[in-house]
Amino acid sequence: MEPHLAYLDAGSGSLIVQAVVAGTAGVVVAAKLYWRRLTSVFRRKTPAEPAAPVAEQPKATADRD
Amino acid sequence: MTPEHTRPQAEPGSFRDPQTRVFHADGEVLRGLGAQAAQDWKALRASDFFARTQAERTVTRTEEVDRELPGAPGTWSATLRHEPLPFVTYPYEWSHAMRQDAARLHLRLLQDALAAGFTMKDGSAYNVQWRGAAPEFVDVGSFEPARAGEPWAGYRQFCQTLLYPLMLQAHLDLDPRPLLRAQIDGVEPAQMRRMFGGTKRLARGVLKHVHLHDSIQSRNADRSTGAVREQLKDAGFNSELVLAAVKAMAKLVDQLDWAPPATHWGDYRETCSYSEADRAAKQAFVDAALTAAAKTDLVLDLGANDGVFSRQAATRAQHVVAVEADPAVVDTLYRQLRAEGEQRILPIVMDLADPSPGGGWAGTERAGFPQRAARADVTLALALVHHLAIGRNVPLPRVVDWLAGMGRTVVVEFVHAEDPMAQRLLANKPDGLFPDYHVDTFEKLLGERFDIARKETLPGGSRTLIAGVRRD
């Protein structure tokens, strides 16, 4: 990934909220992010194990409500 | 191009993004672009999206020029020239409908930018300015090519300087201007959360943009934005979600309406003490003074009320700023002007006894009202002095000094102490508190700073108009 040049501190929490604001598909992304954080401790301990099942869900598409 | 230019002066309010800086020179507005910003500009300039913003005048008209700007060699890779603004205003001087239109413009531009493969670096209300009653986005340096899978960096700033202030007014009927004036970066999510407790958290948009925002923010305070960006990308965040979020915000902004309450000013003209004859004479006087003025590029109508004299002045002037203390009156006037497509009258909310001070870094990032008003050519102060002198106890010599700091031509309406409107103000003050409040005293004081050009007492006998030209 290219280095990020943003001059503004976007706020790490504010970035995550945006996903929720985007609607259902965004909520799925946020949930996935939190799930991965939760399972990362476990995954780090046993790197040979397959990834958590939720990570294999089909890629989220934008919510059109 | 003329060979001689005065050395451009750096705009004190332009420094946050090191890649771009605004300079002033001979009334021109120039912008330096660093290497990266110049590259972004070249991409932007070539896009249909940018051409559209220029044609629709939603982004300040901009061209590239061949000009040197101050700075170490190599600092600036390109120089832009922007169409100057008639008058700079800040979000703490806008009415609700103005703020709503500013937010709409920002989100519409972002939507169009995203569709064209660009994004905006920030989301600040300060990037929106006005040409009359039409909002205009001034920060061309804000546009950059979008990176796939990245959320909008300006979301928090947009919340703090536009969305939250709209929510405060629409949901709580609370004027956000004092908060905006006190905090240059706007209202914090944590502050909002305290104001939206109990059932108020169910008000439109509040749960997500305020409560969830604040709680996720505090839980992620020790994580870097770079790491979170990576995590979001890995979790499947994509450009469609950015667009969906922006659309959801635009829908919310449309729903954050506020109906200005009927106020005592709202029906001022109906209850006003002067007759038709008085009004006609006053209009003729103002018209004559404006016609005689050497320059009328910028007219300030101080205490503009419903804007009737701003409208009259606009027939003789390039631009008129209608300054009025009552936000409800300004909101109504703005809606009218916007509906008419007026581009020469800009209404702003300000208590003239407590005008906007300088703000931000070193107190100069945002210019105070007196500094901005000094550029005016003509000052109208119609039925204003009694509010300052009687209502706010400002001594008449100080009122005159203050007027001398603005337009070279001044038109003042002095309301005599026996006028019913002055009586109404005097009724709340002890007898004899203002022995000097008299038209002769005022005329003498005004004469010390201005050459009195004309003077006329209206047929009703309780109001005197005086026009003067400052002795420079």
Automatic annotation (TrEMBL), chain A:
Biased composition (Low complexity): 48-65
Transmembrane portions of the chain: 15-35
Region (Disordered): 46-65
Keywords tagged on the record: Membrane, Transmembrane, Transmembrane helix
Domain of life (superkingdom): Bacteria
Protein name: Uncharacterized protein
From TrEMBL, chain B:
Database matches in InterPro entries: SAM-dependent_MTases_sf (IPR029063)
Gene3D superfamilies: Vaccinia Virus protein VP39
GO CC annotation terms, alphabetical: ribosome
Top-level taxonomic group: Bacteria
Protein name (database record): 50S ribosomal protein L11 methyltransferase
Alphabetic keyword roster: Methyltransferase, Ribonucleoprotein, Ribosomal protein, Transferase
Source organism phylogeny: Bacteria, Bacillati, Actinomycetota, Actinomycetes, Micromonosporales
GO-annotated biological processes: methylation
Organism: Asanoa siamensis
Coiled-coil portions: none
GO terms assigned for molecular function: methyltransferase activity
